[in-house]
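note to self — DONT lose this again. spent like an hour looking for the file last time. sequence + predicted structure for the chain T wanted, 224 res
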Amino acid sequence: MNIVIITLFPEMFGPILGSSMMWKAQKEKLVKFQIVDLRKFGLGNRRQVDDTPYGGGAGMVLKPEPIFEAVEQTKKKLTKAKVILMTPRGEKFTQITAKKISKLDEVIIICGHYEGFDERIMELVDIEISLGDFVLTGGELPAMTIVDAAVRLIPGVLGDKQSPQDESFSQGLLEYPQYTRPDDFRGKKVPEILLGGNHSKILVWRKAEAVKKTKANRPDLLSF
């Protein structure tokens, strides 16, 4: 999987993409990251990438020329790439979206910034994504989030194939409680059923606990 991220702040991505599962995915040659500095495509000696909005209003808006140039240059190599725009007005990101992205071979992610972007760049965009009903300073943190969520679903990234199947949202429920040693910690004991080795009973218990946790924290996920 080839992922290109277009951003005004490329230095933000090094620590995230060079750690944990993102590092492993690159080591195993399951994913390749490229960070493109949008400023390199800025106009004039000052490498201008933004300007005041027509019609007035606070803040600055990203100009269309640098974004078009950055995407078009990238697409010379990644000809089949889907272009994702990080924007508060996009569709809400979910585990289903992460699975869809994880199956793509080539992805270009545009990180918005300032007060937004010239609407004409939408000609380049295939998918608009938002993390939720809130606004951040830029699209860098959301881009890191969707990359992490999608890349870890690529076969071979996680050590256990079952891991992503048991996680919250994968089966429409939040994940059941997990325990490890010791079985008694400060008087708080691991549920007896998990110590007995009866896997069929454990599966029933886990499903019931997942439903209970979902009903308490995210009842909107329940379809019954």
